Each structure stands twice: as structure tokens, then as C-alpha cells.
Amino acid sequence: xxxxxxxxxxxxxxxxxxxxxxxxxxxxxxxxxxxxxxxxxxxxxxxxxxxxxxxxxxxxxxxxxxxxxxxxxxxxxxxxxxxxxxxxxxxxxxxxxxxxxxxxxxxxxxxxxxxxxxxxxxxxxxxxxxxxxxxxxxxxxxxxxxxxxxxxxxxxxxxxxxxxxxxxxxxxxxxxxxxxxxxxxxxxxxxxxxxxxxxxxxxxxxxxxxxxxxxxxxxxxxxxxxxxxxxxxxxxxxxxxx
Length: 242
Ligand SMILES: C[S@@+](CC[C@H](N)C(=O)[O-])C[C@H]1O[C@@H](n2cnc3c(N)ncnc32)[C@H](O)[C@@H]1O
What we know:
Shape: globular
Structural class: alpha/beta
CATH architecture of the domain at 20-143 and 198-240: 3-Layer(aba) Sandwich
Strand content: 35-45%
Distance between the termini: 39 Å
Order of helices and strands: HHHEHEHEEHEHEEEEHEE
CATH superfamily of the domain at 20-143 and 198-240: Vaccinia Virus protein VP39
CATH class of the domain at 20-143 and 198-240: Alpha Beta
CATH topology of the domain at 20-143 and 198-240: Rossmann fold
Largest sheet: 7 strands, mixed
Number of helices: 8
Bound molecules: S-adenosylmethionine
């Protein structure tokens, strides 16, 4: 099984990332909507939506939202929020969900770079292009690879909900690999995250192979300008040109 099918579908992923909560989502969504100023009838795709924290907020603010994710467990939990203007579905982001349907595609909190193949990366970007309407906008919120490399915390221990997580990080080839070990349910549990260290130029090259063009890069959820040496995030905005 691929690491991303296994780890993100486990309840332990949600325990470890418990601090990536609704407050964080609310802060970013409010800022990015202030910048994008979408119309209320526009349709937003939350691509790799997890348990739907951003989708729910967007829907609460009046938008029509579709949230998709590979993890059946996450979609099952997200479904508690669904209504006639908010639907969730299990779906692989490498495939097209609905063609020419969305005014915005949001891909948030490093939900890219899992496949370790430039061909698969291209497949995701091509699928996004197909799903956007003309003039539609992609918002892709990624780690800042340069800062991840320069500030790598090699070893960390965290106790959350009574679970002692031991986290190790290393750079392997062009990936940051995070090993997560802990005891739970009476046994040793081992998971891995492996995310490609893609920089702004890598994304520009991926986008330029489609009709998507980079229009802005932010460096934080506060929407500060992106600076590769200091920014916490790399938030790319790209527009589908006709
Ligand atoms: C870091 S989480 C972010 C989730 C959500 N965007 C959030 O901010 O809470 C990455 C998500 O990507 C999903 N994912 C991984 N591979 C996927 C794929 N091939 N297609 C769709 N979703 C995928 C995982 O199941 C997980 O929910």
C-alpha cells in the first residue's frame, strides 16, 4: 500500500495533526477569500479535503463546495457536514472528478508531492486544469521546501491524547521523509510521510505545461509575500487562461 493511502486514512494521522484545526483553517480561508473575492454562486473544489475543515467553513460562508479525498475514513467523517451545497466524495486527485465545473480548486496544507514521480505530478496538475472553468483559479498551499531543508528538525517527541509519538525527519533524494513511531492498541505502530521537495520553479514548470499561469505567491496564511529563505508556506495562485 502507498504510504499516503495508509497513513492519512488512519486515526493516528488526525491525532498527530490535531493542532491543524478549524482555527487555522478559518484564519487562512478568511484571508484568501478577502483576496479572491469569489461570488456566492461559484463552485469550489477542495481537492484532498481530509475531514473537510476548509470545505465546511467555505460552505458556512455561503459557497457551493465539493470536497474530495482518497481517504474513505476522512470522507465518512466529512459527510456529517454535507448538505445540498456541500458534498463530499472519495476520489483520487490524479483523476478528473468533473470537467469544466469549478471556479476554484483549493489544494491545501501540503496535499501534493506524494507520488515521487514527475509524471504523476503532471497528471494531478492536468486533472486540475481540466476541472477548472476558463479563468478559474487554483490555490495550492505547499510547504516551503527551502525552509524545510534549512530548518530540518531531525528528531522530535510529542505526547498527544496519551500517545507518545517519536518523529524522525531526513532528506532522502528530493524528498523529506518523516518516520512516525508509537505504541497503540497494544503494538508498535510505524508510519511514514514522504513529500517531494518541490520549489517554486518546479511548480512553474508543472503549470506551464498546462494553460495554468502563476499569478501570485504568498508565503504565509497571513498572506505575506513569499520569501524562499524565511516563509513558512508557499501558497501558489494560478489562473486557467483561455
Ligand atoms: C496533509 S492532508 C491535508 C488534508 C486537508 N486538506 C486539510 O488541510 O486538513 C493530505 C490529504 O491528502 C489526501 N490524499 C493523499 N493522496 C491523495 C490522492 N491521491 N487523491 C486524493 N487525496 C489524497 C489524504 O488522504 C489527506 O487527507
